[in-house]
Design brief:
Elements lengths: L5 E7 L5 E11 L14 E11 L2 H7 L1 H6 L10 H11 L6 E4 L2 H4 L6 E17 L2 E16 L4 E16 L5 H13 L6 H8 L13 E8 L1 H9 L4 H20 L3 E2 L10 E6 L4 E5 L5 E17 L3 E16 L5 E16 L7 H21 L3 H7 L3 H14 L4
Parallel strand pairs: 3-4, 3-5, 8-9, 8-12
Antiparallel strand pairs: 1-2, 2-7, 3-10, 5-6, 6-7, 10-11, 12-13, 13-14
Helix pairs in contact: 3-6, 8-9
């Protein structure tokens, strides 16, 4: 899978000896142009803190480790996690923004632009390899800028981090907690909060003047639901993951403005965000000018090659992508797409993590599909889509994208 960038992180065992160097992929994307909406003066933005997407019940289910970390308090009773976010914001360089923390007492009419970091996805997966355990942890979220009075979102800037570790024994719950903890408290660009702080240099406190795209629906066909059931994956969480990933890659590969996914999105759609202090805000999202409908058709896995040392497995994902006008009256794209990735598995591997590989195939498919939206390739489309019919639609779609850049 193509990554935006890769840092090398060397991990150490408890005795201080280096374990193994792993690539740390960090995706940092943003909605508006890095220079748009800025003048010579600093814009005042109030700090609302850290939030989890969804209400209390959804947050505790979708982000169980984060919910645990949010219970950790400083001696004065404040949230350690939220204080770490503020520390990262304070120590970052964002010359175009004056970020203030006194949200409750500082607001005045016409001066209520607010920023928060909203968590959208938490994941820790494991796989046993030759008696050792590979752990992969992910956090994805948004730097959200909104008007505190109206709760209308002004801009959304996706951020994501990943950490890979190799344990000598089985993965304990404590090991999983420490992986997520490292992704919050990491510095030098390898933590979620440090990524959010760095992104503030590109954040604008003004709404985009262009048009917006939004994923408004993710449908799971029966074959896809069967696969999710086989691996006991939560369909609601998976749907949000697919929608968020499509929006992220759509921006990165096409530089278009998009609105974060909200289930059942429509005119005046809202996004629930539960903050560290327990408050739940319903944030009103911009109305999309172009609506994206995704249909996950299913997955496949197969052994491609094998020998006494390892086996090569293929994992494939299948989707259909439709892009329509704001009222669905005009269809700009409606085409099937598929893509496959290969994974080499050592002989004797137990608990082979097929579900992570299938998710990787979906993310790779999303990346490749959004690349085709940017620049159609006939050879690729012949192999992975419907060929010329898809190519003609994508070429016409390019005129639409000019209005959302």
């Amino acid at each position: 899978m193509r990554l935006l960038c890769s840092l090398q992180l060397r991990l150490f065992s408890r005795n201080g000896r280096p374990r193994q160097a792993w690539a740390l992929p960090i995706a940092f994307l943003f909605l508006a142009s890095a220079t748009s909406g800025f003048g010579g003066e600093q814009a005042s933005v109030y700090f609302a803190g850290f939030a989890q997407a969804g209400n209390a019940a959804q947050a505790d289910t979708a982000f169980p480790i984060t919910a645990q970390l949010l219970k950790e308090r400083n001696p004065d009773g404040t949230s350690r996690l939220e204080d770490e976010l503020w520390r990262q914001v304070q120590t970052s360089s964002h010359p175009r923004l004056n970020v203030k923390r006194n949200l409750a007492s500082g607001l005045s009419p016409g001066d209520s632009t607010t920023m928060a970091v909203v968590l959208e996805w938490e994941n820790v997966s494991s796989e046993t390899v030759a008696g050792r355990t590979k752990l992969v942890a992910d956090l994805h979220g948004q730097v959200m800028v909104f008007d505190f009075e109206s709760k209308k979102v002004i801009g959304s800037y996706p951020i994501a981090v990943q950490l890979i570790d190799l344990l000598d024994g089985p993965a304990t719950q404590q090991a999983r907690v420490e992986m997520i903890r490292a992704l919050y408290y990491g510095s030098a660009g390898n933590g979620l909060f440090s990524q959010a702080a760095k992104r503030l240099a590109s954040v604008t406190a003004k709404a985009s003047t262009g048009n917006y795209l939004q994923v408004v629906s993710v449908e799971l066909e029966d074959k896809a639901r069967q696969t999710l059931g086989e691996y006991k994956a939560d369909p609601t969480v998976f749907i949000s993951r697919v929608a968020d990933a499509f929006g992220e890659r759509l921006y990165e590969n096409n530089h278009v403005a998009y609105v974060p996914y909200s289930k059942g999105a429509a005119i005046g759609s809202k996004m629930a965000a539960r903050f560290a202090d327990g408050q739940v805000f319903q944030l009103e999202l911009p109305t999309p000018d172009y609506r994206i409908y995704l249909r996950v058709r299913g997955f496949k896995k197969a052994v491609l090659d094998t020998n006494s040392i390892e086996a090569a497995w293929g994992y494939a994902a299948y989707t259909n992508v439709a892009i329509k006008s704001f009222d669905d009256s005009t269809v700009y794209l409606d085409a099937p797409f598929k893509f496959a990735v290969t994974k080499k598995v050592l002989a004797g591997t137990r608990d082979q993590d097929d579900w992570s590989a299938l998710q990787e195939s979906m993310l790779a498919l999303i990346d490749q599909t959004t690349l085709q939206i940017a620049k159609p390739d006939r050879t690729w489309l012949e192999e992975w889509s419907s060929g010329k019919p898809a190519q003609l639609q994508l070429e016409k779609l390019s005129a639409v994208l000019q209005r959302v850049r």
